[in-house]
Amino acid sequence: MPISSRAALLVIDVQNDFIPGGQLPVPEGDLIVPLINRLGRQFKQVIIAQDWHPPGHASFASSHPGRKPYDVIQLPYGEQTLWPEHCVRATPGAEFHAELDLPHAQLIIRKGCNPDIDSYSAFLEADRTTTTGLAGYLKERGIDTVYMVGLALDFCVMFSALDARAAGFNAFVVMDACRAIDLDGSLAAAIDRMQVAGVGLIPSTEILGSCG
């Protein structure tokens, strides 16, 4: 499938803490990196999203005495799953996987920077009102279609895809270039939500061809 000049690849959170051996590992998260590199070479426009939390972030279980990772609490903006400390800014865990090779990427968009608000989506923070500026950047560049890859499929990839659709973009998730946490059925729920929202769920062969 030829890639339109009005399409962009959004690479989500391929960072050390989400790779096996990190603080919040996504199973097989390292295995998608070579495929993401190959996909990246098909796009003129590549954007990389990066979790970039300050120490003591509100989404960390350690910030809430008596709570443990994966507990669910209420924060001022709504329900929040608590996570192990991860992707703390300027730490090795927040760095991109060493083999991620996208030298032509023109934008790194950092999210989760507000200490009081989590941000799964590369477009909109968890309060659902604070934007990251990504939608405006894409529209200024004449982009109308966004392909998404990365980690984790059932959280940051899903929310980015839903928000891309809500912002008026055509949205596709390259399924074999993602991996999921699958926390209590979150993968099946994510697939349902994306399909209902009109997100295309495609294999990488639709971009690379059968020999990709």
TrEMBL record:
The keyword Hydrolase applies. One of its GO terms (biological process) is pyridine nucleotide biosynthetic process. CDD domains: nicotinamidase. GO terms for molecular function: metal ion binding; nicotinamidase activity. Keywords: Hydrolase, Metal-binding, Pyridine nucleotide biosynthesis. InterPro entries: Isochorismatase-like_dom (IPR000868), Isochorismatase-like_sf (IPR036380), Isochorismatase_Nicotinamidase (IPR052347). PANTHER family: LD05707P, PYRAZINAMIDASE/NICOTINAMIDASE. This is Nicotinamidase.
